Known about the structure:
The protein is mainly alpha-helical and 296 residues long. The chain has helices at residues 3-21, 28-38, 45-56, 61-83, 99-103, 105-126, 133-147, 152-161, 169-179, 181-194, 199-226, 229-232, 238-241, 247-251, 253-273, 279-293, and strands at 92-93, 96-97.
Amino acid sequence: MNLREYLAENKKIINAKLGEYLEIRFPEIIWEAMRYSVLADGKRIRPILLLEAARVCGADAEVALPTACALEMVHCYSLIHDDLPCMDNDDFRRGNPTNHKVFGEGMAVLAGDALLSFAPQIIIKKTPDCVDKAVLLRVLNEFYTSIGPVGMVGGQVADIQSENKEIDISTFTYIHTHKTGELFKFALMAGGLLGGADEKTLNALVDYGKFLGYAFQIADDILDIEGDLKTLGKTPHKDLDSNKNTHPKLFGLDNSKIELNALCEKAKNVLKLNNILSEAFDAIADSIVNSIRNKE
Ligand code: GRG
């Protein structure tokens, strides 16, 4: 398959819907701040995974698009808040000045809050009526679980508390699997649920999401060391300079590369073992391995 074309086509569909859902209303400034971050050029990897999970289970994109866009909105909220001076204090994101640099800190906080509260409304209001309400409720439960204190926020909290400390491997794994992994897991879970997957398929999809999410974070850690501003769209060496507990810091750069490779193989294998056939899922796993190869 041509992964580049596949990603570009899906991105186009997702971007069009995001633009539609985030039409400017009163008070204009908050919608402008939300649109500024959401409509910037992100990879859309999470919503693409969600759409692919729904597709392999036999569902139309229309059924999964609202949840896919809601997921991207929450991802963008996390980026806006993470970039704030009180958190990671970053000046660039997706190749542009960060939200607070353009709209001010107060408005950036509100833009994140607004995305977080608007996203579930999109799931509720825009998911087609053909989706069973019990399924929709389960999707919403998984959504809130993955983004909240037992999910992504929990991972961010543990990360902040671990700053400038030596941490053990279980704390490190908790941070990575929650801060980054939970949204990947949700992408696969929600796509499977909306596609009507049975529990066995659902578990396999979720396992793929877990392996991929962890690999994605390790790649991000490696690229912080080996990437540059142009290719990353954000400041490189941030983790290095702030002495963050990254995978390479704990295990060494070479071991991180080996682990990244192993996780992507595991991701592909779990699908194979469960007869889930998706060239896109395989190619996405391979592309994570390749994302760091170009820098070697
Ligand atoms: C503020 C509640 C709260 C949480 C923040 C997700 C997160 C927790 C912080 C973002 C910072 C970070 C480095 C997270 C790791 C996940 C990651 C690699 C994010 C970047 O995702 P990409 O590469 O970005 O998919 P694009 O721009 O392509 O969407």
